[in-house]
Amino acid sequence: MELHQLMEHGEVITSVPKPYNAAQGHTGLYTDAATIHTTTFGPLDKYLPANDNDPFPGVRRFGAKGGIVGQPVDKSGQSAGFEVSEPRGRYIGLRRTNEGRFSVVLADGSEQPIPPERAGDFMQTATGRRFWPMDPRADEVFIEDIAHSLAMQTRYAGHCLRFYSVAEHSVLMARHLRQQGADVALFALLHDASEAYLVDVPRPVKPYLTGYKAAEANVMAAVCERFSLAKEMPAPVHEADDRIIGDELANLVPMDWHARYAGKELGVRLRYWSPEQAKEEFLVTFDALMSGRAREAA
Distance between CA 158 and CA 207 in Å, rounded? Predict the structure, then answer.
């Protein structure tokens, strides 16, 4: 019989208590949740999630503010079945230093620095090395590269009557100033060393090349650091670099502006060495000055 028919005939509808509805004297729709769980699903402990990484089974894991109560945390991985040779595992990955640089932490605990990105691109040098003109470093400066490059470059952008290299220009100045001491003479030999990486730009052009003077100063600073030179050009070197123009005018077509150097010559004679000889003379002079500096310091 349908529900509405029973109600029309005055039939009494009763609810028979079910086993899981009869806990603690409650019947009908209001039941004890714990009893329902137990009756329906059985013992609840079999549904507790297993934690294979728990190094302290049976211990309450979290206190009021988190963390394992009364026990240290095992971070070695040994509790998870991994074999470890140390009491705790080692960190492997990147580490940042206080200077903002990064290093790689290897499995043995050692660190390998990661070189920071360089400004600009590199150029290949005569000896097959890399040099970043916009990011010069002292340990990347080599006298062989300097000697070769300066021996291949001519003074005055090549507008000479005969081949006359920057290397010869530097050697003549260094030998002229040898009596000023090895440090001064060595600076004279290397005063144009930045041109090995930035080329010899004519004086009238330099002021109009944005950033060239800064780049030149940075490269020269790296050269000075590499060879333990003074940070500033010594006065005798600056004077000799200006006066030698009077001697070099003999290799230029005569013009009226040459008169300003009359009587101010340095007093050297141009040899017009080939690139090969200029390079050799440059390196020989360098070795002699380095030996002289060592003797003066002794």
Answer: 20
Q: What pLDDT digit, counting tens, does each position of 226-250 carry?
A: 999 999 999 999 999 999 999 999 9
146 and 108 in a single domain? The answer is: no
| Cα radius of gyration rounded to whole Å, the chain | 43
Q: Would residue 238 be called left, alpha or beta, if left means φ above 0 and alpha means ψ between -120 and 50 degrees? A: alpha
pLDDT tens digits, 107-155: 777 887 777 788 889 999 999 999 999 999 999 999 999 999 999 999 9
Give the total number of structural domains in the chain. Answer: 3
143 and 284 co-located in one domain:
yes
Would you put residue 71 in left (φ > 0), alpha (ψ -120 to 50) or beta?
beta
In a domain, 29, yes or no: yes
Give rounded-to-5 percent helix, strand, coil for the chain: 45, 5, 50
In a domain, 252, yes or no: yes
Question: Is 137 a domain residue?
Answer: yes
Is residue 50 a part of any domain in this protein? no
